[in-house]
Design brief:
- The chain is an alpha/beta fold.
- It folds into 3 domains: 3-151 and 330-384, FAD/NAD(P)-binding domain; 223-324, Succinate dehydrogenase/fumarate reductase flavoprotein, catalytic domain (Flavocytochrome C3, Chain A, domain 1, Alpha-Beta Complex), CATH 3.90.700; 412-493, Fumarate reductase/succinate dehydrogenase flavoprotein-like, C-terminal domain (Methane Monooxygenase Hydroxylase, Chain G, domain 1, Up-down Bundle).
- The chain is 34% helix and 15% strand.
- It contains 14 helices and 19 strands.
- The chain has helices spanning 11-22, 39-42, 57-67, 74-93, 127-141, 201-208, 236-240, 266-279, 294-300, 302-310, 367-384, 412-422, 429-442, 451-469, and strands at residues 3-7, 26-30, 47-48, 108-109, 119-120, 146-147, 152-158, 161-167, 172-174, 177-180, 213-214, 219-226, 232-233, 244-246, 285-288, 320-329, 332-334, 346-348, 353-354.
- Strands 6-2-1-10-18 form a 5-stranded parallel beta sheet, with helices on both faces. It has a 5-stranded antiparallel beta sheet with strand order 13-12-16-15-14. A 3-stranded antiparallel beta sheet has the order 3-5-4.
- Helix 1 packs parallel to helix 11 and helix 13 packs antiparallel against helix 14.
- The chain is globular and about 65 Å long.
- The termini are far apart.
């Protein structure tokens, strides 16, 4: 019997675990927090898929590729949108109660860069929580063991292939196949919508094991994180319902950047917000949802409504402050369409993986769909594979780095500020070189002992190297020294709250 260890307990990991288990594998799920401590649980907007007879997979594919600035792998896009409807049906069968209209059809929302309303949601804006709960229940019902509060330290490699994992406490778990589903690395940045656990653990472990990574320069910054109190995502679906962005003068500025205004791709709207903030001394811009009214806001967005009101804001009557924040990593561990990496026995799914499906910028609400589609494929492949074929490698592009001998002392906050200032929403050669030199100093032998900090530093180094190598601007990777920068502020001018 094939033994599979899945590291991570979000939609991608639990879907992979369930598929491998149902295919006859002995599966164990390992997660560094509680089973529910995932990015999936916080996903508000919904999951995009073609479920309306008037919608088409071709339209969904076109929207995905447009948002990705054409750098998407077309085969991966075809898999995502083509298998999406079946994965939605599977989620329903596993107990996800998507919101319905009075006649029983799915209630579909519109989000930025989608041609039609195709985003399914549950509990208004609690889609991720509903999916997390249903999949968690399914894993428990299947009798799949779950190791909670177990931090991955490294992959175990023997004779050139993965044979298990090592935990931070030194324990080793053996496996025929390991599936990495540890999410992204939002904690690289001073301002992020990601939970504290998003420290790039799986990506870092894969790099140390020799796996290829790619597209790490493509970090998506969400345009609308609440700029009051602790960071909190205000879903794109709010703008899809009709909310607008305004500056201190009350002017809708997003149309200056794109004909679609607030519903342009996320990278465009995020930079438009940054530009407007710089023009008003760094003050957050405002999201005006007052036209939706208190009853509609509370009904459609109960989670956001509660969070906003907990901060003393009445968004039904007063526009609320928002700012860009790091949200999603399009790059990651290179895989084929079944989650196989360049290291035999190792698979990666979800935000940990780089399937090529997102290109340079992820389309709204494609992340949960990616986890469901590619999680299923990886679980099936782990059960089916015997010789564990290797995915095509992506050549690395190393760049020389001068170590900054005067670098400040390392701390998590110092790393996050460095990445925000020099490798964030807007980048240039000088800032990236400065970041590279500081990271090189921090990664000197003997400087670190904490597993998560070491992982963040390793992933940060690869993000910066990738950003230095890509000298042009595309999608979420914006180089102010590659275009006319008149309308875009330098990173230091953008003061997020």
């Amino acid at each position: 019997m094939t033994t599979v260890v899945v590291v991570g307990s979000g939609i991608a990991g639990l879907t992979a675990a369930l598929h491998a288990h149902e295919a006859g594998c002995r599966v164990t799920v390992v997660t560094k927090g509680a089973l529910v401590d995932t990015n999936t649980r916080w996903a508000q907007g919904g999951i995009a898929a073609v479920t309306d007879p008037d919608d088409t997979v071709a339209s969904h594919a076109a929207d995905t590729i447009t948002a990705g600035a054409g750098l998407n792998d077309p085969d991966a896009v075809d898999v995502l949108v083509g298998e999406g409807p079946a994965r939605i049906a599977e989620l329903v069968a596993r107990g996800v109660g998507f919101d319905r209209t009075a006649d029983g059809d799915f209630s579909r929302g519109l989000e930025a860069a989608h041609a039609v309303a195709r985003v399914l949601h549950a509990g208004g804006d609690a889609t991720g929580a509903a999916i997390q709960a249903a999949l968690g229940d399914a894993v428990r019902a299947a009798g799949i063991p779950v190791r909670e509060h177990a931090l991955l330290r490294d992959l175990v490699i023997e004779d050139g292939r993965v044979t298990g994992i090592e935990l931070a406490d030194g324990e080793r778990l053996t496996a025929d196949a390991v599936v990495l589903a540890t999410g992204g690395a939002g904690q690289l940045y001073a301002h992020t919508t990601n939970p504290l656990g998003a420290t790039g653990d799986g990506i870092a472990a894969a790099i140390r094991a020799g796996a290829a990574v790619a597209d790490l320069e493509f970090v998506q910054f969400h345009p609308t994180a609440l700029a009051a109190g602790a960071p909190f995502l205000v879903s794109e679906a709010v703008r899809g319902e009709g909310a607008v962005l305004i500056d201190d003068a009350g002017r809708r500025f997003a149309f200056d950047a794109h004909p679609d205004g607030e519903l342009a791709p996320r990278d465009v709207v995020a930079r438009a917000n940054a530009r407007a903030m710089a023009a008003q001394d760094g003050h957050p811009v405002r999201l005006d949802a007052t036209a939706l009214g208190p009853e509609r806001l509370a009904r459609r967005f109960p989670t956001i409504d509660a969070a906003v009101r907990e901060r003393g804001l009445d968004w039904a009557h007063v526009p609320i402050p928002v700012t860009p924040a790091a949200h999603y990593l399009m790059g990651g561990v290179v895989t084929d369409l079944d989650g196989r990496t360049t290291v035999p026995g190792l698979y990666a799914v979800g935000e940990t993986a780089r399937t090529g499906v997102h290109g340079a910028n992820r389309l709204a609400s494609n992340s949960l769909l990616e986890g469901a589609v590619f999680g299923a494929r990886a679980g099936d492949a782990a059960a089916r594979d015997r010789d564990w074929p290797v995915a095509p490698a992506v050549p690395a592009r190393p760049a020389p780095v001068a170590v900054d001998t005067d670098a400040p002392a390392f701390s998590r906050s110092a790393l996050q500020r460095l990445m925000w200032d020099d490798a964030g929403l807007v980048r240039d050669a000088a800032g990236l070189d400065r970041a590279a030199a500081t990271l090189a100093a921090w990664r000197s032998p003997g400087r670190l002992s904490a597993v998560e900090d070491d992982n963040l530093l390793l992933v940060a180094t690869h993000v910066v190297d990738a950003a230095r190598a890509r000298t042009g601007s595309v999608g979420a990777h914006y180089r102010s020294d590659a275009v006319q920068p008149a309308s875009i502020p330098a990173p230091s001018e953008v003061l997020a709250c």
